Amino acid sequence: MKNQEIANIFRKIAQILEIKGGNPFRIRAYERAAQNIESIPEDIEIFIKEERLKTIPGIGKDLEEKIKEIVSNGRLKYLEDLTKEIPQGIIDILNIPGVGPRTAKLLYDELGIRDIVMLERMIHAGKVRKLPGIREKTEENILHGIELLKRGHERMDLKTAMDVADSFVAQLKKLKEVKRIDPAGSLRRGKDTVRDIDILVSSKASKKVMDKFTTLPDVKEILAKGPTKSSILTIGNIQVDVRVVKDASYGASLMYFTGSKAHNIKLRQLAIKKGLKLSEYGIFRKDKSIAGKTEEEMYKTLGMAYIVPELREDRGELEAAEERSLPKLVELNDVKGDLHVHSTWSDGGSSIEDLVIKARELGYEYIAISDHSQGLKIAGGLNKEELKAKRKEMEKLSKKYRDIRILFGTEVDIDSDGNLDYPDNILKEMDIVIAAVHSGFKQSKDKLTERIVKACRNKHVDIIAHLTGKLWGAREPYEVKFEEIFKVCRDTSTVLEINSFPQRLDLNDINCRMAKDFRVKLAINTDAHIAQQLEMMKCGIATARRGWLEKEDILNTLPFGEISSKLGY
Fold this sequence. Notes:
The chain is of the alpha/beta class and 569 residues long.
């Protein structure tokens, strides 16, 4: 294992040196050393102990010292220093199967692509295939590699989990022996990332259910198979567990396997105080079952209102349920439109018309085409003349599709000093202005907060997008002073976005609830870059529900007449 670790480190060094335009002979030396180290049959620590590292072809004094450092410290300072010299996102791109350093360097030099999310978007926008040596098949291979990389993570994003669970549930539902079936676990609670998929089934024919489950087309490996629980690994390396229970205890089992652990512990403590016993099989008074068939009767028996899965985190929901003061949470069908969508005018992969058609299909009253502003060159930001041309196209489409309002929007960049990328005379012509930070993520908490606050105070800014800049798997959220921003948003009537893009989900659930406490309005948007991504709204809804948000808290639950009045156009 140590041999492979050292080989991997040397290969990473070679890749970074190639991106930096390093000496080709030095690059080749690291590649050759990696190849030779991983091919030796003995543990490399034996070579160190017997002082014969230099007998390995390609290992001189410099590499000998580096090998000793790795074995001794578990790390190599030289690699750490090299890594700091290029954006972290490029390192992540190198982890995509099939993407080598030359391609990564080409993507960065020509299009400024420095993280996986940006790479995926540029492919959908058709920008990557215009590069020398890149063809449509290359794009397909990169997208496939990205998918493999995502699935190889310890956790998966919420949408991936939803899609996998929906597929298995749909196939198992076809069995007449399946009476009830639901996803459980953190997926049912709508968490932003999920470790594996839990599915609960009510059936009298567990063997038939398990036989079907373990032979479905997407099954790569059976991890365990039993009469009441089976586990498989999908072709995409996602673990799916199915449990079969009796219908009489289905509600109790669904409650138990949905969690959270903290919520369940609190429920058990409450049951004990009432002289009852709570388990995954039901609620018992002595040895007699008094509830278990449905979750509703479980909560009722414990003297409280039904608690929806998204709230089950022991954040005050049990107390609110006892007092009958739970919020009526926002639902997907409450949403009347999407205010943050990108088209082919900037870095999107769908035309405005295709986005409008999809929005109509979803039953929306309005959609805002909010392409990037001029300063964001890598995302195809629009200059003044391009804005005029885009508006003309939108006016034509508005006449063609009279049953939906097509709003002229922008995602305007907030620069390093908090200034906006368009002057006020352009911003005032917009139906909606979304401001966002796209650079300077390593600035101090005070500086980042100052930039955002300044943008909030611009009278033309309607919404602040993806407040913390989080990109799951690619970039950690940057730090801001939430309370200060929430106060300014409240005072200026600036709306904060819940970005539904699965790698963002920003604001998160905790900050959503804090914003609500500050009486700040929120908007749930998809940040879609292709028409199909408009369906990601369900991820943002899950986050909003976890944040205790109601329909009244969300801007884009308003019908067009009210939202136009609210935004002043």
